[in-house]
Amino acid sequence: MRLTGILYLLGMALVFLGERVIGGADPLRWTLVGTGLLAVVACFALYVRGMGNAETNQKPAWRLGMIYALVGVVALAVYALQSDTVVEALAFAEDDAERRYTTVISALWPILWLAGTLPLLAIDRALSVAPKAAVPSRVSLQALGALGFAFALAFLFPLNFLGSETNERWDLGYFKTAQAGTSTVALIDGLDEPMAAYAFFPVSSDVTAEVRTYLDPLDRGQLTVEYVDHALEPELAKELKVRDNGYIALVRGEGEDQQVERIKVGSDFDSARRTLKKLDQEFRKSLLKIARGKKVAYVTVGHGELYWKGGELPDDKINNLKKVLRALNYKVQELGLTEGLASQVPEDADLVMVLGPKSDFQPEELASLDEYRAAGGALLVALEPDGPDLAALLGPLGVSADTTRTLAHATQYIPRTNRVSDRTNLVTNKYGTHESVTTLSRNSRMLVTILAGAAVLEEDGDGLAAGAKTTVTIRSLTETFADEDGDLQHDKSAGELTKTFSLAIASEGPAPDGKPTLDADGNEVAAEFRAVVISDATWASDAALALDPQKGNFQLLMDSLAWLGREDGLAGTVNSEEDVKIEHTKEGQGIWFYGTTFALPFFFLLGGVGRIRMRRRRGSQA
Questions:
Q1: Could you tell me the pTM of the whole model?
Q2: What CATH architecture does domain 293-566 belong to?
Q3: How close are the terminal C-alpha atoms of the chain, in Å?
């Protein structure tokens, strides 16, 4: 590249940095802009001098370069016309006139800049190759080609303006309003008192028809569905605090005891389509808040457990788990030594979760957790390889765990790092028929559970509480092995036999220290404890527990919580019609990378070489 091209590009870059990066009244801005302008003007001056010194037959090429350099200078001048100083000096009488002026200038200066810059660079290249033997006609053709390309790019600027002004859009993406899932239907069928769903939508709205396809089948049992227009029912809207059309209000009770949950859908179809795709999730979330009382879930802390704070990796965090619990109307609290775990589990605990501890519990803490079980508590325990000894807690549940060994599979696993350690990323769809995996077992062909680093879990009746029973709910795929020596290679000589291992076990039984409860008919029922023990904790981490009801880990959590909380309505499917994110494998990414980096340029190069050879052949024949 010649000095002219270097000065031009450097000058434009300095102007850009000063105007777009620095900006304001910073002295550095004016220094950069001034230096950049001088460089562009110097480029123009060099072309003027070059034209004066060039041979007669070379002057047209230099003159053309001078013209396009001047266009670049003019582009900068036009850019200055949109500055606040110039706009204020023009003193437009109407805001609309000022908007049109700034819009035209904003679209015009990039067009001029492209029309000057690209041809100038083409001319500069031609002159750098043959400064004294450049054929003016060929230089002109190269400049015209670059100018045509510049106008093609410039076409985007007015097109973008027209698009923003007319606000026209064509959406060819998939759309379908979500239908009510089995979980939502079960919640409605289990309502213990009447509820109403008021849909505030105008009759003529396209959104109304979509909302009807969802709500009409739910008008059953204790739930009544009504469609109202905000303008025609101002008193009802005021009572339910609905500001406009486009809302669904769920109402329970009357007067001071009235509870209202509002779901914003939107009355305009474009704004409502995203909510319509996940309407079942939003409706079910609001229904849970209003149909059942607040519950409390305690998560043990202080032993290296998975936690929603701290932790550098998604495998160590449970923010998504916390979101799910809150959506289910659980109040989530910590439970450790400072919260009194060494003395007793709080009486308001509806659920206690022990998620992947890495250090030992105090004997008093384990005793408190077992007392909570004996009083009819609900426990969710997830283990990790190299974790502490929890025999005092797991024994009465009829479970034993060997955390010194890790389960692995030689072929069936999820690749994350493409190293041998990936063999511990187990996948399975082998579910039992227990209530804690109801939805998983019904949809085993579609729902796969991922457990990244599972300990060895077994049923053990030696310490099982009297009258209790255990059930294996999830098993590994065949040919899984327990690694004995840490190399994650299947070694028969080391006693690493392949078989099907237990990955999750449900335990339930009488709670002698618990208070009897009443069933739906008012009959007294003896207290029972319930527990779910899972051989891996990272199944509930942010990395594995995506907030997608169509994934197995999410459904494992929902089924487990439904059974532990004795709430059948929590189990079942939650429908969503949101677009599924495309997951790129490393192999697929490699194809795209090498294809765009090497293959496409190679084909373009091959085509160019072929074109040049054809032109040379025609020239020789002529």
A1: 0.58
A2: 3-Layer(aba) Sandwich (3.40)
A3: 33
